[in-house]
């Protein structure tokens, strides 16, 4: 049995994490053909196929994903060794890279990742971006996890091939309510007490907005919309500072409700915002990630509606 060529493994690691053979070859100052040849030698020596080669595209096979997981550990240890020799002892930590959809509730994300802040053996990197950028980051194995309020497995904007790359785990379903200032709570029941109120609402592409529009139509209410915002953080700020009513999960304005600035007026029946953990389809994941997504840990955070 031939010994593992770590030089070839390094080349594989660079290509797998970058996703572009030409760019990596340029960065390493080698020809593209030489780089490709050395990766093939690694495949031959290990007797596995690491990439599916379709046209100019490179997609990791399941074996490739497994090898990449080991390669990441190997070269991370190499960086630790270099730091040890240069600066002294460095703590051994596991890095967990988490992408967060930019429109998600920051309060929910903060509560979810809170256990990682208490774990001295884990270093957490958080990145905020749009969904396309986050999924691209996972495709190139720059992210271990994406947190989203969109279920990519059923997202109509992604084709079937793209959807098959991912697996979504439902983390929680947060109820949605009408929220407003404590000093101005309507004295009459819905809809009469709400007809002259100003509203700050989620954008029209939001599932929450669609549900609210249907609710208003059922009660013959035409809300006076002062502003719209797709970003939950912005929706929170506008609701807090404008004096208008809004429709959002109370967890988004949890601090304001606890302080008495805002009040939950009325839960919307059968309306929820769902939060998902999106990972690449694989049979393995970092230990810290597996612990974070374990059902008991999630139940301690906030149970999924209907889950016992």
Indicate the topology.
Elements: H1 6-18, H2 21-28, H3 32-46, E1 51-54, E2 57-60, H4 62-87, E3 94-101, H5 106-117, E4 122-129, H6 131-139, E5 145-148, H7 160-163, E6 166-181, E7 198-201, H8 207-218, E8 224-228, H9 232-242, E9 245-248, H10 254-259, E10 262-280, H11 287-292, H12 295-301
Parallel strand pairs: 3-4, 3-5, 7-8, 7-9
Antiparallel strand pairs: 1-2, 5-10, 6-9, 6-10
Helix pairs in contact: 1-3, 1-4, 2-3
Task: Describe the overall structure.
By secondary structure, the protein is of the alpha/beta class. It has 3 domains: 6-87, Orthogonal Bundle (Arc Repressor Mutant, subunit A), CATH 1.10.10.10; 94-172 and 275-301, D-Maltodextrin-Binding Protein, domain 2, CATH 3.40.190; 173-272, D-Maltodextrin-Binding Protein, domain 2. It has 12 helices and 10 strands. The chain has helices at 6-18, 21-28, 32-46, 62-87, 106-117, 131-139, 160-163, 207-218, 232-242, 254-259, 287-292, 295-301; strands spanning 51-54, 57-60, 94-101, 122-129, 145-148, 166-181, 198-201, 224-228, 245-248, 262-280. The strands form 2 sheets. The chain has an 8-stranded mixed sheet with strand order 4-3-5-10-6-9-7-8, with helices on both faces. Helix 1 (6-18) packs across helix 3 (32-46). The longest helix is centred in the N-terminal third of the chain and has 26 residues, at 62-87. The radius of gyration is 24 Å and the shape is elongated. The protein starts with 5 loop residues before the first helix and ends in a 7-residue tail after the last helix. Keywords: DNA-binding, Transcription, Transcription regulation. Belongs to the LysR transcriptional regulatory family. Residues 4-61 form the HTH lysR-type domain.
